[in-house]
Amino acid sequence: MIPQSVVRKITDYIWEIPKGYKDGMQVPARFYAKREMFDVIFKDRSLDQLVNVAHLPGIQKYAIAMPDMHEGYASPIGGVAGIDTETGIIAPGMTGYDINCGVRLIKTPLFYDEIKNHLDALATQIQKDVPSGLGKGRNIKLSNKEMDEILEGGAPLVIKKGYGIEDDIESCENNGFISWADSSCVSSRAKDRGKDQFGTLGSGNHFLELQRVDEVFDEKIATIFGLKKDQVVIMVHCGSRGVGHQVCSDYLREFIPLMENKYKIKVPDREFACVPFRTEYGQRYFKAMAAAANFAFANRQFILHYIRKSWQKIIGGKYEDLKLLYDVAHNIVKKEKYIIDGKEKELIIHRKGATRAFPPGNEEIPAKYRETGQPVLIPGSMGTASYVLVGVETGEQSFFTTCHGAGRTMSRHQAIRTKHGRDVVKDLEEQGIIVKCWSFRGIAEEAPYAYKDIENVVDVVHNAGLSKKVARLRPIAVVKGE
User: Fold this and answer.
1) Three-state SS sequence of 114-135
2) Nearest one of 359, 356, 355, 339 to 347, comparing CA atoms
3) Taking Cα atoms as reference points, which of 200, 148, 149, 154 lies closest to residue 175?
4) Which helix (H) or strand (E) holds 282?
């Protein structure tokens, strides 16, 4: 474990492990936190893993970790690495298993007082219409052709088939579609795993939550985003399901012997199975990752369609009354350009449990948000607040990246041993939060006490200049998987 004595303070919110701490580090390891968060941060191996990231060929500036960091596979969850596309590698473990696990936020036209008497019925209907458990498919089994179309077409394909409206496309990162995806780079096993999981939330930390806007911090930006105090919104947090998991597994298995025998790449941990980005193998993973990301964009779009249907059944109104504010990815690799040592370089930015946060004027932001900066959606743990933030110019220090949530402080097994899920549900209901779940075990795994304080995490990214607070959201009903 890394001793705290080696850590240098850059500011009250930025800390650094020097490049000279270990032989082979190419760059310093930088992390964002308050001093009072150190006790939690130094409990696991997340900083050791961050130092390992700093060894990787082609890495630029820093190996970076967000304040919600915790130990993951190979690199920490909450980790960011910008790697030179010409000289560097690509590593599936630094994207993670749940490719394009992400969040979308849906605005409704109603306020809490207008909906509170219908909340239970609405949550029940959503749970019925949107399967949410580990293996609970929708009784839809995609054909091989349909699966390939979704892997290459993403959310726009689903919308074209009638499961959404045109405005939904503009309100997604990358318009809900990554153009370089190639379904031929995805194994049959990965495709088979996704065929009956389309339109499902999944288990673990995935959720669907009805929330109300609790506080607005920036009235001007909130108005442009279409948010008002006490307005009801709906947050969806899910990813690429078995598709992304299998893509990661397939390429890790393929890359280990390639890394060691063909390319002779030395890494501190074999979990960093990697190959040079410019090779045929690196490009195949890059295209397969994009295909899994497209599945996730399409999956969240399909879920939005059924939320709209549930809303109409219980509340009424028009299908298009529910507007998508934005959809962001957490686990993904993208090519982006940055100034490094005075020269523009193309990098592949690995974001794992981290959120893109582009500033005002960036051409990749939808036109309607270009003046404000990109909306950033930060889900809290179940029963605590979530946040809407916005990208800012000073975010360039972290490759325009911010946190993705609260971040775990205990394992799922430890959380289960701490309290029975039935008691967690009771605690939430005493706070006025309706809970719909298939399994008390799943509730216990994701209990609020298993996570860091979201207020501390968001304060860090706000004060460090990675993103700026716009509004806080409070849960009023939660739909969970197994």
Assistant:
1) HHHHHHHHHHHHHHHHCCCCCC
2) 339
3) 154
4) helix 280-314
The pLDDT tens digits of the residues spanning 260-272 come to 999 999 999 999 9
Both tokens of residue 307? Answer: 């939320």
- String of b and e for 58-72 (b: at least 16 CB within 10 Å)? bbbbbbbbbbbbbbb
Separation of alpha carbons 64 and 430, rounded Å: 39
3-state secondary structure of 5: helix
Cα of 377 vs its chain's centroid, Å? 9
Question: Predicted confidence band at 131 (pLDDT cuts at 50, 70, 90)?
Answer: confident
Q: Is 100 exposed, middle or buried (0-12, 13-18, 19+ CB in 10 A)?
A: buried
Taking the whole predicted model, whether its pTM rises above 0.85 is answered as: yes
Please say whether the beta carbons of 207 and 477 come within 8 A: no
| Tokens standing for residue 473 | 């959201």
The DSSP H or E segment spanning 237 is strand 231-238
Query: In this predicted model, what pLDDT tens digit does every residue of 348-395 receive, in sequence order?
Result: 999 999 999 999 999 999 999 999 999 999 998 777 899 999 999 999
Cα-Cα-Cα-Cα torsion 163, 179, 354, 448, nearest 10 degrees, comes to 20
Say which amino acid occupies 390.
Answer: V
End-to-end CA distance of the chain: give it in Å, rounded: 34
**DSSP states of 296-355:** HHHHHHHHHHHHHHHHHHHT-S-GGGSEEEEEEESSEEEEEEEEETTEEEEEEEEEES-E
Tell me which DSSP letter residue 406 carries: -
The helix/strand/coil state of 448 is helix
- In the chain, the amino acid numbered 86 is E
Residues 2/31, Cβ–Cβ less than 8 Å? no
pLDDT in tens, 140-192: 678 899 999 999 999 999 999 999 999 999 999 999 999 999 999 999 999 99
H runs (alpha helix) in 206-279: 219-225, 241-257
Per residue in 300-312, pLDDT (tens digit) is 999 999 999 999 9
Residue positions annotated with a catalytic role: 404
Q: Comparing C-alpha atoms, which of 451, 151, 129 is closest to residue 291?
A: 151
Burial of 15 (0-12, 13-18, 19+ CB in 10 A): buried
